[in-house]
Write a structure and sequence with these properties.
The chain has 133 residues and is mainly alpha-helical. The protein contains five helices and no strands. Helix 1 packs across helix 5. The longest helix has 40 residues.
Length: 133
Amino acid sequence: RARRALAAGVAAAAAMLVLTVVFGARTGLDIHRPTVEILHLLGALDRDIAGRFQAHALSLGLRGGAAGAAAAILTIAFFAQAGRRLRLAAAVGVPSLADWRMWGIPLAAALAAALAAAVTARVTVFHRLARMP
């Protein structure tokens, strides 16, 4: 039951990430439409334009992911310390501060979110550019 709830939470967070990036990329492309049209007239390819949006989404994703990973690590460290003080470590399975998963999982999740944002932005911009006159 707890695993289903966790899976549903992860799926909801992933959906929110994708929707946020899609709407952000579409809005950015609409705002910069005159510039994009000029770039096309000058010979820029769709992949060049999509690459700029992708790089921006990756940058934002990495910064946001780093902040989220830091918050997660601090929260886990706080509860691990509190669990040790209350002597719950053995009973509840409180992670050790030396456990690589405590650091690796939040960092991997942050990197995955940033990469998902970059890919979503690229696909969204390509799709939008294909529909431009």
